[in-house]
Specification:
mainly beta, 7-stranded mixed β-sheet
């Protein structure tokens, strides 16, 4: 079992920055691909960014050059969000996925609201 807890969401004006954190507890997520997803009201949950165990990253086109995903150890992942836009408003979810160990866990989500 993996427990994921996100933090760092909030209200920010357009052009501002936020840093989201996700701390994993329980079993190790050392081998997992860690990801950030977001879901706006009435829309599906979409991938924002992901990072592999080896540090390879992947970003949605809409956030490239504005958001940066990182992991400082095996259990914590961050999402630095700069130049925020109103369309970035959503609930942001942390995800831990391991094909090797067949698990896929989600955090409870953190609200990000960007005002214009």
């Amino acid at each position: 079992q993996v427990h994921l807890v996100e933090s760092g969401g909030g209200l920010v004006q357009a052009g501002g920055s936020l840093r989201l954190s996700c701390v994993a507890s329980g079993r190790s997520v050392n081998t997992a691909v860690m990801g950030w997803y977001r879901q706006a009201p009435g829309k599906q949950r979409d991938l924002v960014a992901s990072i592999s165990r080896g540090g390879s990253t992947n970003y949605a086109d809409s956030v490239k050059d504005r958001f940066t995903i990182s992991r400082d150890n095996a259990q914590t992942v961050y999402l630095q969000m700069n130049s925020l836009k109103p369309e970035d408003t959503a609930v942001y979810y942390c995800n831990a996925y391991s094909r090797v160990y067949s698990y896929n866990y989600w955090g409870q989500g953190t609200q990000v609201t960007v005002s214009s």
